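Folded chain entry
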Amino acid sequence: MKRSNWFIGIDLGTGSCKSIVVDEEARVLGFGAAEYSGLQAQDRWQEQDPRELLKAAIDSARGAVTESGMRPEDCAGLSIGGALHSVLALDGHGDPLTGVITWADGRAAEQSRALRGLPVASRLYQETGCPSHGMYPLYKIMWLRDKQGDVFRKTRRFVSAKEYVFARLTGEYLVDYCLAAGSGLLNTQALRWNPLCLEMAGIREDQLSSLCSPLTVHRGLSPEFAREMGIREDVPVVVGSSDAANSNLGAGAVNPWQATCMVGTSGAFRVISSRPILDEKARSWCYAIDEGHWLVGGAINNGGVALSWLRDCLNQAVPHISPDPLLSFEDVITLAGGAKAGAGGVICLPFFAGERSPNWNLNARAMFFGMTLEHGVRHLARALLEGIAFRFRSLKEVLVDIGVDVRQIIASGGFTKSDLWLQVMADALNRELVLPVWGETSALGAAFWALLSARGGEGLEKAGDFVKLGDSCRPNPESVEIYNRMYPLFEKLYQSLEKSFDEVAALQEGLER
């Protein structure tokens, strides 16, 4: 029988793990997904059981391999992608001392806020590409040192979720440049652990994983896990990159003029640049991918998680009088479709999980403004979608300010399944959005690293040849005019409330919820 090589990419996302099998021409052969069980939704977004992530990685990979129908012995490469900004503490035996603390966890707000406005914050941004914000593991490690000293002293190693899974599968602690850059601990230009950051965190370099390029290969998997996944034991395991970089690869956005607009649980607007690009106002971030590429852009905390909040609120108000009375994600978007552009003048500041780019304020809080007795839930749903889209407009404006020439925007993530949400985004940005044929871009991008490695380590630009683009969504001029009138008010509302955010955050700390 003729050998037919195939490759698998595993994407350890925030809410679930997804895996994709592709052939040598990058055609998708199989897909698998597994949720992280045993936790409430809010807990999943903030602290996760690392063993559940490992189980989900194995289950999703097995599902993709099974669906593909490919032979285990023909697997020519595997790569893993992981969400940025996670951290967990391990003891000397490699056992977890904490859960996986995700990007959404706000416990380190105090540690990051203490540096804002100080000269050291500017120096850190120049060296690491990371603004001062509590989502970065640098500050979460400082929080563990300050608040859980016993755990901190017992910690032999600080790793991300991906590093934990990679080590369990292979026995080796390695971290790619992009995931390391997203920790706030890497010098993003020199590509080495930053001594100042290590000193500030109170840790040693040997408590972190060995740095490597995304095309670094480890030979072989644990026999037990290889068997469970349906993959040969001696498969080349390519280190790969972060889910953010992988999303760009999987969307085909590999040139400096191509941006991805991604909305999943959170959201991001980013480009791959051939040089590091920093903002004198520190509104954007800059993460190394490899020796010649940097991921430049901004991210928001409130993507699908904000829509989930509204759905859950509505479901809590619905009496459980039938077997399945709960509203779905799609139902909430349908409600939004019942209101016209502008949501009847209701504006939403969608800061349900604080804020990342461009103002980096974990104390930012959500608000619906402009409501009257004439407004209903359809206006709230529509205003929420529009508020998220306005956040992306602010990210796009930052990239323009720092000299990024965006000529094409490729949409990815769960929001691409909704025609309405896509249209709202296109109208708010006043730009055409192009959709890749395959929507699970982070998992696909992970598979591309394994494929690129097998092809002799070709540069990441080659991934653009693997991706087919499909439909597009063009802005509606009437809606664009409405949003151009609303956006300045959206910005003005934020600025007028900026000082009050800290006050209400302090108030909430002392009140029972």
Observations:
- The first helix runs from residue 41 to 46.
